[in-house]
Write a structure and sequence with these properties.
With 253 residues, the protein is of the alpha/beta class. It contains 9 helices and 7 strands, in the order αβαββαββαβααβααα. The strands form 2 sheets. The chain has a 5-stranded parallel β-sheet with strand order 1-2-4-6-7. Helix 2 packs parallel to helix 3 and helix 6 packs across helix 7.
Length: 253
């Protein structure tokens, strides 16, 4: 997967899913989860991260600190979760890899849910709890929201307000994945206005921009391997060896 992405110039992969599937009926995660056991998710998740970043792409684990116990799909409504300590074990395991935190999982993705201890009407990505949780777990790289277009967020906030709230809470980027250009433009305009008014402090924005710059320098800069499509990409994407491996994986799954 990493080799095929690199062959066509992709520099960033929103993978792996590090959720522990503690609720088999979870409608949002389901078979995207590696396993229902934290130690297996940690072991295989670390291997995926190493493989992706070994090919020169940035990896992005999701959904910190865990979305595997949800009984509600956040695409449609806001899940309210109690999170046992075991769900964050894969993140601890991946963080403790022998590589420097500056060279392995460079980005962490926030999902749209609410811890039971918070006001159940407010997604976690709109409060400082989410980024403080990431920081306390030792992740000092980019922190991204999940898609703010999902009903867990968009059912409560318009995209411009949701975006400003998420960035103000400490996230480095906010995702709006619906192909609604008007909403995306309005969200950008809202960020500019929030910065100009002082609602988004200059120091916070400056620190976030610096984190983005470090990421781009490593994975999309002149010395990066990814981001330069090869003329031989047709020999890589969907090649016979990759097809055989995919067939073998499907057989065991």
């Amino acid at each position: 997967m990493a080799r095929e992405l690199a062959a066509v110039g992709i520099t960033f992969d929103f993978a792996p899913v590090l959720d522990v599937l503690t609720n088999p009926a979870n409608p949002a995660i389901g078979d995207r989860a590696i396993d229902g056991r934290a130690e297996v998710v940690s072991r295989i998740g670390c291997a995926i991260i190493d493989a992706i970043q070994g090919e020169g792409l940035a990896a992005c684990g999701k959904h910190f600190p865990g979305h595997g116990d949800a009984s509600v799909d956040s695409h449609h409504d806001l899940p309210v979760l109690d999170l046992p300590p075991t769900v964050s074990r894969p993140w601890t395991g991946c963080r403790s890899r022998p590589r420097s935190p500056a060279t392995w999982p460079v980005s962490w993705w926030r999902t749209s849910w609410c811890p039971r201890s918070m006001n159940a009407s407010r997604p976690a990505c709109h409060g400082p709890w989410s980024t403080a949780c990431c920081a306390s777990a030792g992740f000092g790289n980019l922190i991204l929201t999940d898609d703010l277009s999902m009903k867990a967020c968009s059912g409560r906030y318009a995209p411009p307000a949701a975006t400003v709230l998420a960035i103000a809470a400490g996230h480095d980027a906010a995702l709006l994945c619906e192909p609604n250009h008007d909403d995306q433009a309005a969200a950008l305009e809202a960020l500019v206005r929030a910065f100009e008014s002082g609602a988004l402090p200059f120091g916070q924005v400056e620190a976030s921009v610096a984190r983005h710059a470090r990421l781009k320098a490593r994975y999309a800069g002149p010395g990066a391997r990814a981001g330069r499509p090869s003329a031989a990409w047709r020999d890589v994407v969907g090649c016979e060896a990759h097809q055989a491996l995919a067939a073998e994986i499907r057989h065991y799954v």
